[in-house]
Amino acid sequence: MIKVGIVGGTGYTGVELLRVLANHPSAKVEVITSRSEEGVLVADMYPNLRGHLDIGFTVPDIETLAACDVVFFATPHGVAMSMAPELIDRGVRVIDLGADFRIKDIPLWEKWYNHTHTCPELVEKAVYGLPEVNREAIRTAQLIGCAGCYPTAVQLGYLPLLEKGWVDHRRLIADCKSGVSGAGRGASVGALLCETSESMKAYGVPGHRHLPEIRQGLARAANKPVGLTFVPHLTPMIRGIHATLYSVLKDPVDSGLQELFEARYANEPFVDVMPAGSHPETRSVKGSNVCRISVHRPQNDDTVVVLSVIDNLVKGASGQAVQIMNIMFDRPENEGLTQVALMP
Amino acid sequence: MIKVGIVGGTGYTGVELLRVLANHPSAKVEVITSRSEEGVLVADMYPNLRGHLDIGFTVPDIETLAACDVVFFATPHGVAMSMAPELIDRGVRVIDLGADFRIKDIPLWEKWYNHTHTCPELVEKAVYGLPEVNREAIRTAQLIGCAGCYPTAVQLGYLPLLEKGWVDHRRLIADCKSGVSGAGRGASVGALLCETSESMKAYGVPGHRHLPEIRQGLARAANKPVGLTFVPHLTPMIRGIHATLYSVLKDPVDSGLQELFEARYANEPFVDVMPAGSHPETRSVKGSNVCRISVHRPQNDDTVVVLSVIDNLVKGASGQAVQIMNIMFDRPENEGLTQVALMP
Amino acid sequence: MIKVGIVGGTGYTGVELLRVLANHPSAKVEVITSRSEEGVLVADMYPNLRGHLDIGFTVPDIETLAACDVVFFATPHGVAMSMAPELIDRGVRVIDLGADFRIKDIPLWEKWYNHTHTCPELVEKAVYGLPEVNREAIRTAQLIGCAGCYPTAVQLGYLPLLEKGWVDHRRLIADCKSGVSGAGRGASVGALLCETSESMKAYGVPGHRHLPEIRQGLARAANKPVGLTFVPHLTPMIRGIHATLYSVLKDPVDSGLQELFEARYANEPFVDVMPAGSHPETRSVKGSNVCRISVHRPQNDDTVVVLSVIDNLVKGASGQAVQIMNIMFDRPENEGLTQVALMP
Amino acid sequence: MIKVGIVGGTGYTGVELLRVLANHPSAKVEVITSRSEEGVLVADMYPNLRGHLDIGFTVPDIETLAACDVVFFATPHGVAMSMAPELIDRGVRVIDLGADFRIKDIPLWEKWYNHTHTCPELVEKAVYGLPEVNREAIRTAQLIGCAGCYPTAVQLGYLPLLEKGWVDHRRLIADCKSGVSGAGRGASVGALLCETSESMKAYGVPGHRHLPEIRQGLARAANKPVGLTFVPHLTPMIRGIHATLYSVLKDPVDSGLQELFEARYANEPFVDVMPAGSHPETRSVKGSNVCRISVHRPQNDDTVVVLSVIDNLVKGASGQAVQIMNIMFDRPENEGLTQVALMP
After folding, report:
1. How far is Cα D251 from Cα D297, in angstroms, rounded to an integer?
2. What does the mean pLDDT of chain C come to?
3. Where do runs of H (alpha helix) occur along A50-145?
4. Would you tell me how many other CB atoms lie within 10 Å of the CB of residue B166?
5. Is pLDDT at D252 greater than 80 in this prediction?
6. Which of A34, A71, B191, D56 is most buried, taking the most CB atoms under 10 A from its CB?
7. Is B86 helix (H, G, I), strand (E, B) or coil?
């Protein structure tokens, strides 16, 4: 049994970790921390867990966490970096769902997150948590910086094209739509039902924190810096990200896009390349760890349109983190992750 | 392995059966029928099932169905009664999610459903499919008429009070709110997003088909006919029923309501009596087979208010049907039904 | 031109006042206050008002407000009582959309609002702001305590029955469903889209602050204290209240319910008694000042079911306040209030 | 008083015309037709109109329509072309909200609409109904082919850039998001709440009927054919279109984008250029005839991102049609169109 600790269990990625792990046959949540909810039973805060999980929140404590095999951080940036060094020293493997270990370029990270990084040496050793790119490195990693939600959807959609160099890497446009749970569970006017329902808007057009992360990932795939415009939108739904990805074919007579994608993801348990002509819906992955992708070339023109959908809380966060844990602990990669999406 | 057939797999209760059964360790869907979708892969119609179920719709055929151990009917009323007799003759056990075998009083059924019943003799033998009431009879039944969605939520909420005779059986008011999936997947103006979103309305106030079924169930519990006003409402959400149940205590000084409910459901795997003072939310059971209940006595007056929530497609239909199958085939009652509700 | 002041313009009832008044031909908003948004243009906060209203928020100041003909308080309880006395002394008429002047019984108010009332003498003089009950008193009133949202929907639905004494006043059940805007625009986890969308729940079953207000109004109609159970529910929509009102006919052979309601509201500009058999939808009043009502007697039994819908921000708050202003200043009662509901 | 006829009043653009015209001081709806609803009162079908409009549906009849000053067609393509010729012969002015007269290239129209055009000579004479482009021609036109919903949002966003030639006309990407009302009021599974709520998807990526219309409009602005990729998305809300428009600056050092847009629309009553840095929300125009636009140049790169929002049923259909009627009949352009958007 993998002994699991969770730091920051009260947010949406925290409760989603609990949902996934509650039915995981090889993992057991031993400790879950929250300063604000100390002593509260998890199931009192999240009644969907009643009967599934009999554990309460405790104040974060390094001793208790150090007794775990793996600790997940489901926290805002800045938290994981403050505790990860000691946990790693004591042999605990750390999976950070936050942003502390995603970006290799420390000054870039510090600029976008407006925060001084306290353990740059760990960033270097950390493995970027996107199994479709880094599976082997994940297997033996001590520290994972899990891919963000937008970055997961965007990278999985662009990888086949950029790795093969089929499209102009300088002209990438990622128009992304996210459900409101991406904003987290904090009390904020902007995420009220009355502010977000029956409406659609773009946000962060001048610059969003996921931009440098996506650029880093796409540059790795293209083997050179890329030019990317990234526009996120807030969509009136709870879960889901829909990435609509535009790029320009270098050789306009090229065909074989469908085959390219199918071949790239043939052995991936959680990437589903849909039949040519498909339009994946976010609800088809609601609650599941799957990324569904389709690729189009409208009017046979030289623009490629890739549609990529995930559940931002699962493949975009907690499901992916469990997938990574499975790889790290030599479990079947889909263990505990076989739920069928809820549809309708 | 229980060999399962499903008649009418294209509606919402059909696809929900498939979602639940896809991960059931002891059951395998061998055949699923649909006249209109013959030859279509189930996963092409419901992409959430891609990778989980590799089977296509076939035209209903008695021979193929007769090779199954159990056949579910996820069909409008009138279909099950036309095929059940022969299937039962051939030793197949039948679980009807529709209305054909729920009501014992044939003329009453014919009046409300405006349909001639073609096998009244089977109605007599059929067991009403509500495990919390009929578990033993279900175990050996050949034919089940599953409880409807509203009837499940309402009966589970009233049973403790009526069985013990604590409330006036002549003055029951069930104010129920349902998500739109209760209207099914048929193309109708009334269930369009633009007609149902951002709105709330009552419907069927003069009379709804679930009224006689609920009355029959409550009369059984009270051991006498009951007086019930039942008002269903359409709520702008996909899944969920919230039943708000009013009744009048006979002995106003009585206490022990909380204990009464806890004792009644102490051994029920799918009924969760919440702590005193709770307000269950439908989302706390979204996608799960649980019914959550709380009981109130506002202002210490003589009116009891019971709040009862289910997912209409799970405990109100397909999950309950699988729970019943588990009982019939001597499987652990919660096998395949341990999913945690999706929250948020 | 009526010179209007608004205290507390940043909440939902505040912006709704602005929306209604922006097109009012006889009123002009001269001042709108908000401590937190001082100096901000109203249209920067509420872009729907761009091009309609060129005014900014100012800090509340008694001199500026005293120059108005009427001041609306769109504030939480406790604010109006602190400023109303001086404004009234200086001849300004005051319309409080909050709760400070609704309840005549001061100790009762103090118990439910957990607050000491600082001007009980004004409560006595204040007129309860429900035009269908108090039109004549409103005409000359100096101070109005506007009816709350639930109380408006519930009273309008019960009045005809109670005024005529047709139903048992001791057995009233008001099952009410409200959109989330009723919770206001404050940052709170409970009103996030991710917490309220795709879900339904009851709240405040042990006791809600609108209960004593409703009881007071119904007692006035019945001319004696009433027995009322009131259960509010949170519904996943922005606007709208649907009240489902149960009562028991004293004389079960009585007929004429439809006529009773039509006669009672024949001359009311904002109460629409729908044809017999109707089920009013909240969307049919979205953005309009209308209350639509239908009355049923299911199965010809002795239970009467009244369905009453309003837009909680219009007839339940700001529209009603403007209707009251029209009456006070001798304007046509529907001036500025003729918008057709937005449907779909 | 302008005498108005409406053909096809039962759909969403029909009822929206009625909502807008109900309060129009200079127009009166004399006749509204529907074959399927003959004899039904409009207010019985659309209860929001109760008390506002006392008229019933009649079978389309050329004599009755010919007595009007103007006839709106709120019909699917193919209907207006069958009746417009005779109406125009008889001096009636015709405003088609459908697609029959939008596209000048008849074979192109016939290919995309899969329909033979029966009056190509009228197409030539028809004026494209987008006042911001064609105001003068509209003034004297006999026949208007109103701009579609997506085409309105996209053209208003691109016009300033293309008219001045600031961006590369060969590399335009319009990523558009629409509410479900764009699909109309027909009974279809695809527009059910249970199919569209809590989900987002692209559709028509290989080709959508609005593509040739948008291309025609943008080519007119650019004075040469344009290269455009257009991807529409279905969004879980009733009303609203959000167009996110990408283009590449020819001269990357250029500035003055904000001024360009402000100057272009300085005198437009229904185009609101928001302050630099804004992110318009569709709800800020819900129910109003306004198009709100903001322009961005993320990271000071050479990609321009224009955000353009409208209410698809108002500025994208019925409001725009009334704006056009006002122009044609020499009324103030905003008469009857001053409603403030409903927010929240």
Report:
1. 13
2. 97
3. 62-66, 80-89, 106-113, 120-125, 131-140
4. 19
5. no
6. A71
7. helix
Which of B192, B195, B234 is best to mutate for the D interface (most D CBs within 10 A)?
A: B192
In order of B304, C177, D256, the CA distances from C227 in angstroms are: 14, 20, 68
Q: What is the pLDDT of residue A253?
A: 64
Strand partners, D295: D306
> Rounded distance, CA A262 to CA A274, Å?
9
Do the bridges between strand B143-146 and strand B93-96 make them parallel or antiparallel, or are there none, so unpaired? parallel
Entry field: residues in chain C: 344
Question: What's the distance, Cα to Cα, between the start and end of chain B in Å?
Answer: 34
C182 contacts: CB under 8 Å, gap ≥ 6: C149, C241, C312, C316
Q: Hey, are the CB atoms on B272 and A19 less than 8 Å from each other?
A: no
Strand partners, D245: D174, D306
Asked if D50 has any chain A CB less than 8 Å from its own CB, the reply is: no
Q: Between D149-163 and D257-264, two packed helices, what is the crossing angle to 10 degrees? A: 120
Q: Which of residues 184-203 of D touch A (CB under 8 A)?
A: 194-195, 197-203
Query: DSSP string of C193-240?
Result: HHHHTT--EE--TT--THHHHHHHHHHHHHTS---EEEEEEE-SSSS-
Query: Which tokens is B266 given?
Result: 């102490």
CATH number attached to the domain at C150-312: 3.30.360.10
Instruction: Provide the pLDDT confidence category of residue A69 given band limits of 50, 70 and 90.
Output: very high
| Burial class, A54, CB count within 10 angstroms (exposed 0-12 / middle 13-18 / buried 19+) | exposed
Residues 52-71 of B with CB under 8 A from A: 52
Cβ neighbours of residue C173 under 8 Å, at least 6 residues apart?
A: B173, B246, B303, C228, C229, C231, C245, C246, C247
Neighbouring C-alpha atoms within 13 Å toward the C-beta of B105: 11
User: D336 — phi, psi (to 5°)?
Assistant: 75, 5
Q: Which of A194, A235, A238 to mutate to test the interface with C (most CBs of C within 10 A)?
A: A194
Residue B64, phi then psi, degrees to nearest 5: -65, -45
Domain C2-125 is in which class? alpha beta
Residue D12 contacts B where some CB pair is shorter than 8 Å = yes
- Domain ranges in chain B? 2-125, 150-311
Report whether B304 contacts B3 (CB < 8 A). no
Residue of B162, B73, B60 lying closest to B126 (CA atoms): B73
Strand order in the sheet with A2-7: A57-58, A27-33, A2-7, A70-73, A93-96, A143-146, A127-129
Name the CATH superfamily for D150-311: Dihydrodipicolinate Reductase; domain 2 (3.30.360.10)
Measuring CA to CA, how many Å separate D126 from each of A153, D83, D146, D219?
45, 14, 10, 18
Give pLDDT tens digits for B261-312: 999 999 999 999 999 999 999 999 999 999 999 999 999 999 999 999 999 9
Contact D242 A277 (CB under 8 A): no
B286:C199 CB<8 A: yes
Contact C191 A192 (CB under 8 A): yes
Interior/surface letters B125-137, b for 16+ CB within 10 angstroms, e for the rest: ebbbbbbbbbbee
Are D238 and B194 a contacting pair at CB < 8 A? yes
Question: pLDDT tens-digit profile of D68-92?
Answer: 999 999 999 999 999 999 999 999 9
Residue B146 annotated among the catalytic residues of the structure: no
Please choose, from the candidates A197, A236, A344, the residue with its C-alpha nearest in 3D space to the C-alpha of residue A283: A344
Determine the distance in angstroms separating the CA of A183 from the nearest CA of chain B, rounded to an integer. 12
Residue D98 has pLDDT above 70, yes or no: yes
Of B180, B181, B189, the CB nearest to D185: B189
Q: Which residues of B touch A51 (CB under 8 A)?
A: 272, 290
**Do B238 and C198 lie within an 8 Å CB cutoff?**
yes
Q: Binning pLDDT at 50, 70 and 90, where does residue C59 land?
A: very high
